[in-house]
Structure formats: C-alpha cells, structure tokens
Protein: 3-methyl-2-oxobutanoate hydroxymethyltransferase
Organism: Anaerosporomusa subterranea
Amino acid sequence: NKRINTAAIREKKAKGEVITMLTAYDAAFARLLDEAGVDMLLVGDSLGNTMLGYDSTLPVTMEDMLHHTRAVCRGASHSLVVADMPFMSYQVSIEEALRNAGRFLKETGAQAVKLEGGKEVAPAVKAMTAAGIPVVGHLGLTPQSVHQLGGFKVQGKDVAAAQRLMDDARSLEEAGAFAVVLECVPAPLATKVSQTLAIPTIGIGAGNGCDGQVLVIHDVLGLLPGFKPKFVKAYRTLHTEVSAAVREYIDEVKTRQFPGPEHSFALADEVLEKLY
Ligand code: KIV
Ligand code: NA
C-alpha cells in the first residue's frame, strides 16, 4: 500500500482518472478515509468552522494547522496529505511564506501545502516549489478573502472575472503548483480551465468537468445540522444518528439500564464477605 505522491496525482489527469480528495482534521478520520481509498486528504483551514467553532477560517493559526496536520499524518498511510496555509501565514512576504510552508513538511509529515490566490501569490508558490515544497493553488471563492469578496458567492461569472480566473490558473501552473482547487466557479468555466491546464483541477462547487473533486468530510457525512450549500452532497445524515445515540445513552443511564452485567466486572463472593 504505497503512498500516493504528487507525480501520481498529475499522472491521473494524463490517464483521465478522476482524483478524489476529502478534508480530514484528526487521526481517527484520516485512518477511515485513507483505508476507504481517497487519493488526497486536505487538512483544510475549514477546521476553523468544522472543529474549532469559529464562524470563518480567518482566526485559524499556524499552530492550529500544525497540530491537526500532525494528527492527520499519524492516521494516513496511503493518501497524500495536503495542509492548508492559514490566513496571513503567506501574505506578508515570500520569506515568511516559505518559512511557514517549510514548517508543514519539517514538522508534520504532510507532503504538500495549499494556499489561496492567483497571480499575487505566484512568487511565493515559485519559491516554495523551488525549495522542494509541493503546492496546491486555490481559486474562485477563496474563503480567507470573504470580506474582500463581500460574501460566499459564485466567482468568475462575467467576462472580466472569468478571464482573471483563467489567467490566475495559468500563473499558478507556471509558478509550479501541481494542482489547483476551483471553488464555487460556474461549471463551464471550470471545465475550460481544466482543459487548458496541464496540472489537475480539483473542484468544489465547480461542476463535473474538473479533474478531481473535494468536499468537507463534515458535509459528506451530514455531521453538522443546519445550512447546506448547493454544491454539497450529504451522503449520510450522521448528526441525527449522533443525537439519537446520545439521547439513548442519557436515558439508559438515568433509568439504570446501562451499564448491564455484560459491561461490569465480577468479584468472588468471599472477597466481599471478608470486607468490613
Ligand atoms: O479548507 C477547506 O476545507 C478547503 C476546501 C473546501 C477546498 O479549502
Ligand atoms: Na481552506
């Protein structure tokens, strides 16, 4: 069960094999998804929302990302692990970006990093790839820029915005990125970008013409009740299962149905008899 590498990911596009990616934030889930056969695990900064209780990805720190990436790497043996670079860990200077990207490979066992943005981050991407750090780009709806974008909405809808996205994708490829995530992009535009680039595109809310797909594992499993974006498919509704299980547990503890004899440890009668 050999580890998938970045060359194998690029090769999949050449062979027309669809690439699968899911987020993971801890060792337990990483092991489950890895054993199920997913190609890439993304330690997304979406962990701000899914795991840490923030309402955006902006507060997530390098230390948060390193901590969760280490856990994911302990659970994954086959899938390629990609770590998201958090907000403001790569924007200040190329030097700081390079140093932070390097920490993921040095200190966690991740095989690659991901960062958001196009042309403006191309020099940082170039420095990272020159240093031997594989990079995944991220275009379209980039949640770290939510305040700049003015909310979570589909990107690249008019000619100027569509052309900008195409140019950004080209500049990431030229800078050495080995894949690009396209988030919330009209399907025909994402298809066109996928046909234009040699490196694979990984879509989320970007239609079926991308070279691969990624979703947040909490969305796939229906772990969180509430709002579900149009592009999400919840393959299960586990939050109802979790609630039902916990309610049953509370009820059985209160009514002394749990623990039963089968969950308890016995003691020889004479031990009890000699106790005073
Ligand atoms: O943080 C994340 O989960 C992501 C994916 C949605 C691509 O960046
Ligand atoms: Na992210």
Q: What stands out?
A: Residues 240-274 form one domain. DSSP finds twelve helices and eight strands in the chain. Residues 39 and 127 are 26 Å apart (CA to CA). Residues 44-46, 57, 84 surround sodium ion (ligand 2) (CB under 6 Å).
